[in-house]
Amino acid sequence: MMKQLGCLLLALALAGSLSGCGSSGPAEGQTFAMDTVMNFSAYGEKGEDAITAARERIYQLEAELSRTREDSEVSQLNQAGGEMTAVGDDVWKLLTSAKTYSAATGDAFDITVAPVVSAWGFTTDTYQVPSQAELDTLLQLVDDSRIQLEQRSDGCYAALGQGQSIDLGGIAKGYASDCVAEIFAQYGVESGMISLGGNVYVSGAKPDGSAWRVGVQAPQDSSAAVGILDLTDAYAVTSGGYQRYFEQDGKRYHHIIDPATGYPAESGLLQVTVVAGADAAREDDGNPAGTGTMCDAFSTALFVMGEEKALDFWRSGAYEFDLILVTDDGRVLVTDGLADRFTPMDGSEYSYETVS
Length: 356
Ligand code: ADP
Ligand code: MG
Description:
Order of helices and strands: HEEHHEHHHEEHEEEEEEEEHEEEE
Radius of gyration: 20 Å
Shape: globular
Number of strands: 17
Low-confidence stretches: 1-8, 13-22
Number of helices: 8
Largest sheet: 9 strands, mixed
Mean pLDDT: 92
Strand content: 25-35%
Bound molecules: adenosine-5'-diphosphate, magnesium ion
């Protein structure tokens, strides 16, 4: 199922920018990669070149990180049978970050959930409900503390535990957004916006100095929004159980797996949006990737954790970010750091609460 969120997010942003001053518009691009629609918009002399470079970088990342491409670095790791394997800079950063955020979220995020994701058919689009016996066996493989990372004089190496495999689907698009942010900076794009299937990055403000307007999709309706975020120089990443799912015997099974049960997470949340300033990453948090990577890992993890644990984690202040949670009983919870940057949708059926 192709994801529509990116389109909605960008459409709203562009509608906002067109009503601005009379200056010429941004360079724009769209591509399909990492199983999702990606949109780019970049102001400035080198906007066009920046988008070309961003596209190429994303294709490179896809070739390295895809689980379904036999020759990707991730596939090589998955096929190495627990042997130490040389990995490039991108995989190294992603593995380090994934382990950091797994530990931070009490293992709600765990890239070694891959065999379970596959058992449900989400890797190959051949969906099925696995037996409890199969899940019990596969769950013994889910434990990212068994991933070993080693920096040697000739480069970086990684090994999975025996029988394990990894799936970077919950973090790769966030990392890609960090990489595009870097490219925008290199090309002098001080104003721009990207949406990589629900992973949004806005560079600076719009050319007229106003904030970018980013729509937060309504969970069950890709053409509706729960509200609008006014963002400057920030990341906003949304995860939801409606992005990829199948139905069997009247029950819906989605693609975000609770590593504790092996089942699609049923936490009472329909959707989690994580927002962080582009300068918010702390240098000592052990994360070598960027803030987009963090937001992507947390959007998946907090969806698994549910309202109470997610808000406890936010309140702990261990990482700087804000949240918009949509619950299955129709509430939209907005953490207070976003209070003056989030506008509820007019006439919405949701009830809105600010959380502190
Ligand atoms: P999307 O890819 O739809 O934007 P997410 O960022 O939430 O959504 O990532 C979901 C993907 O992450 C799944 O398709 C799967 O590949 C992987 N995944 C599922 N459950 C987990 C989990 N608990 N921890 C880490 N990765 C997960
Ligand atoms: Mg994610």
